[in-house]
Design a protein that fits this description.
Helix content is 75%, strand content 0%. It has 543 residues and is mainly alpha-helical. It holds the Pfam family MFS_1.
Length: 543
């Protein structure tokens, strides 16, 4: 997937997404990868109290571990895009799984906070990044019509793993300490290699094999049996390769496509996501320690993340199903804006929660809104740029979001250390999320929808783009089959057709020259190929 054709130096023809079949296995792998990528940085926060005691550091210092993980997940997007376009998704994911596991294993032997930054933060974060982005690319390759549902189901991996990894981390912390917990977590991350192994690229060579077999069969039917038949087969194959070489000049494959920055929708989406990420991850990262500081027992505090995860499990697939409805899918950007607005208002309204009951209510509404955001964020990006440019688009978007990830949680941690007040943090995080929602909705309406209304409706042109990926793939296959069938016609029938067409054109030209020139309305399409238009007189010599 994403690799250039070794024979012709360019991407092969797009293949129609199966919307099922092996795609469900790919979806399962993407489910696991998404779960580890998003839940792991939050689940690690269970160990922060013990790390603060062992290394004698503040909360803001330990919060950098989760921030570095998320920053690597986002900031290495362009590097991951280049590797996927060069080597394909499966090898990149296998390497990523090994890096993620080795990072947590090495982190269990660290002696200071800096070593934790380099192992659990940088190495594990890089490994998860090399798994997360290719899995989304493969999901967009296998699904088109069911893509919103597939994105929602894959995004449900985050709450499922969050609801399980957080209590598991608490149990491991009590029985084995934070070092034993990190070691076991590293072993669990080896499952990313299994998920990478099932990311089988769509078979693009099957169509070539069928065409070659069909060519040989037709050559045997047309030519006499014997040595001439083999000669005809080799001649047919040689002619076909020569025509391909003439019609398809070699082109270099772009490792990173920067032309997507000319898309206004992509610019609006990127700015909105940058503002969103500033406050989106702050509440779940601070939630456990906030509950512990208010007197909630450690086990019950860790259970709050499980509540968010449990609600999120059902919110993401449900939101994906709603986004896939015919009357909702064209306006999915507005649904995404509503989800962000819901999430921001939840943070603001729950800032004064001071007991366990209030925190549980916050977790319920936060889980619903957070699940909606998680289910829609990449579906909106795929709808804006299309699956062909998605590998480059997601890499650039994640790079820009990495700066927001490095600013948001660490800044919130420093404010907690300075003010000893979580209420201000929740107000600030919620305001940032609300601002991103309002910006996306207003910019989409003012810059995109109004621009579409002012533009005249485009003329229907079969050669022009604009359809879905499935329609483009079907048209490419149909054109290939028609071209293939034309090449297999006997030579004498082609000559007769050309002669008949020439005589008919001469007859039309003689009638037009007798009537005073000009092209009749009914023959405009035929004569346009030979150089005739409404402003010129057709002469016999031009035929």
């Amino acid at each position: 997937m994403g690799r250039a054709d070794p024979e012709e130096g360019q991407l092969p023809a797009p293949v129609k997404p199966p919307d099922g079949g092996w795609g469900w296995i790919v979806l399962l792998g993407c489910f696991v990868i998404t779960g580890f990528s998003y839940a792991f940085p939050k689940a690690v926060s269970v160990y922060f109290k013990e790390l603060m005691k062992d290394f004698h550091v503040g909360y803001s210092d330990t919060a950098w571990i989760s921030s570095i993980m998320l920053a690597m997940l986002y900031g290495t997007g362009p590097v991951c895009s280049i590797m996927v376009n060069q080597f394909g998704c499966r090898p990149v994911m296998l390497i990523g799984g090994l890096l993620a596991s080795s990072g947590m294993i090495l982190a269990s032997f660290t002696t200071n906070i800096i070593e934790l930054y380099l192992t659990a933060g940088v190495l594990t974060g890089l490994g998860m990044a090399l798994n997360f982005q290719p899995s989304l690319i493969m999901l967009g390759t296998y699904f088109d019509k069911r893509r919103p549902l597939a994105n929602g189901l894959a995004a449900a991996g985050s709450p499922v793993f969050l609801s399980s990894l957080s209590p598991l981390g608490q149990v491991l912390l009590e029985k084995f300490g934070w070092r034993g917990g990190f070691l076991i977590m590293g072993g669990l991350l080896l499952n990313c290699c299994t998920c990478g192994a099932v990311m089988r690229p769509l078979d693009m060579g099957m169509k070539r094999k069928m065409e070659k077999a069909q060519d040989k069969y037709e050559a045997k039917e047309m030519l006499p049996i014997g040595g001439k038949s083999e000669e005809g087969i080799s001649t047919t194959d040689g002619t076909k390769k020569a025509k391909k070489a003439k019609k398809k000049p070699k082109k270099g494959k772009k490792l990173l496509d920067f032309s997507i920055f000319s898309n206004r929708g992509f610019i609006i989406y990127t700015i909105s996501k940058f503002i969103l990420v500033l406050g989106l991850f702050v509440p779940p990262i601070l939630l456990v320690n906030y509950a512990k500081d208010t007197g909630v027992p450690d086990t019950e505090a860790a259970f709050l993340l499980s509540i968010i995860g449990f609600i999120d499990i059902f919110a993401r697939p449900a939101c994906g199903m709603v986004a896939g409805l015919k009357w909702v899918r064209p306006h999915v950007a507005y649904l995404f804006s509503f989800a962000m607005l819901f999430n921001g208002l939840t943070d603001i309204c729950s800032a004064r929660a001071s007991n366990y009951t209030g925190l549980v209510i916050f977790c319920v509404f936060f889980g619903i809104s957070y699940g909606m955001v998680g289910a829609l964020q990449f579906e909106v990006l795929m709808a804006i740029v299309g699956s062909q440019k998605f590998s480059s688009a997601i890499g650039l978007v994640l790079l820009i979001e990495a700066f927001a990830v490095l600013i948001g949680p660490p800044s919130a941690g420093r404010l907690v250390d300075a003010l000893k007040n979580y209420e201000v943090i929740f107000y600030l995080a919620g305001s940032e999320v609300v601002l991103s929602a309002l910006f996306l909705a207003m910019a989409t309406y003012c810059c995109l929808n109004r621009g579409k209304k002012k533009e005249p409706p485009p003329e229907k042109n079969p050669s022009a783009g604009g359809g879905s990926d499935t329609e483009e793939a079907e048209s490419d296959v149909q054109e290939t089959e028609e071209h293939s069938s034309d090449n297999h016609q006997p030579a004498h029938s082609t000559d007769n057709t050309m002669v008949a067409a020439s005589e008919e054109a001469n007859h039309v030209a003689e009638e037009q020259s007798g009537e005073g020139g000009g092209c009749p309305e009914g023959d405009g399409e035929v004569l346009a190929r030979d150089g005739c238009n409404t402003d010129q007189t057709v002469e016999r010599d031009s035929f």
